[in-house]
Design the sequence.
């Protein structure tokens, strides 16, 4: 939903969930995090994309700078089994603060509470729980907890 390539598609079962009686497994509703991703896509997932990857962690920055874009966006995905991982990414913004918009985590449960969306400071990020700063080179170490997708937005612009 937040990458430059492809054509995003949301399926009924992903949004509303699937009853376990229908397929034997079931699937929790993703409505809460999908509504968030839809808003972020419309307002921030625009402009040039810079992609980065390392072992167990990947991330990208959408630069904005095009009509309709409210600012830059950084996204990190951590597939490691445990622990917070960082990835150094170039935002093109010098000495700019990026704030933690949300961390999305699958709980491993297939019931209605299968996903957790943390919209406030995420304590596992320590002193970067609320936000982080880019350096003179426009780069910063963006974080994500294990099994999570974390969204960071350029400070000074909010999500409508």
Sequence:
């Amino acid at each position: 939903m937040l990458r430059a390539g492809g054509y995003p598609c949301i399926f009924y079962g992903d949004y509303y969930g699937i009853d376990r009686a229908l397929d034997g497994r079931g699937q929790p509703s993703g409505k809460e995090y999908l509504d968030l991703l839809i808003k972020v896509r419309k307002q921030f997932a625009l402009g040039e994309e810079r992609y980065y990857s390392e072992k167990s962690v990947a991330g990208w920055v959408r630069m904005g700078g095009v009509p309709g874009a409210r600012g830059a966006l950084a996204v990190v995905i951590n597939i490691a089994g445990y622990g917070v991982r960082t990835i150094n990414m170039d935002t093109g913004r010098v000495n700019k603060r990026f704030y933690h918009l949300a961390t999305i985590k699958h709980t491993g449960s297939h019931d209605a509470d299968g996903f957790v969306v943390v919209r406030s400071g995420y304590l596992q990020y320590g002193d970067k729980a609320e936000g982080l700063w880019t350096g003179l080179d426009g780069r910063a170490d963006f974080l994500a907890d294990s099994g999570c997708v974390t969204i960071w937005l350029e400070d000074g612009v909010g999500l409508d």
